[in-house]
Structure formats: structure tokens, C-alpha cells
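CHAIN AND CONFORMATION:

***
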Amino acid sequence: MDNTIAGLFGILLFLAFVGGLAFSIGAVPFIIIVAIIGVMAVYDFYESVRDERKAAAHKASPLSES
């Protein structure tokens, strides 16, 4: 759970920083690159949280003891 909170905080901080940078620069190609990288970062965070929850559920399952 701590990794999820820290990851969410890191993603939000990253998106705020690069989003502000893209807004201040204002170049369309840079904004597109920032948007693509932002979507990729959010997707990777989602995948890692999903995998972590699957592993925790598998570990807690009584069927996994065999």
C-alpha cells in the first residue's frame, strides 16, 4: 500500500512538472511528446498496482498453499 501511495504521488508530481513545462514552452510537438509519455507512465503505474494486487490476492488465497 505504501508503494501505491508513493507511486501515485510520484506520478502526479511528474505530470505536474512536465505538464507545466509543456505549457510554458508551448511547442505542439513537445506537448504531444509529454502527453504520450504521461499516458505511458500512468499505464505503467496502473499495471504495477494491478500486478501487486494480484500477487497479494494469490498469496492470501487458501488454494495457493498447495
User: Anything to note?
Assistant: Residues 2-57 form one domain.
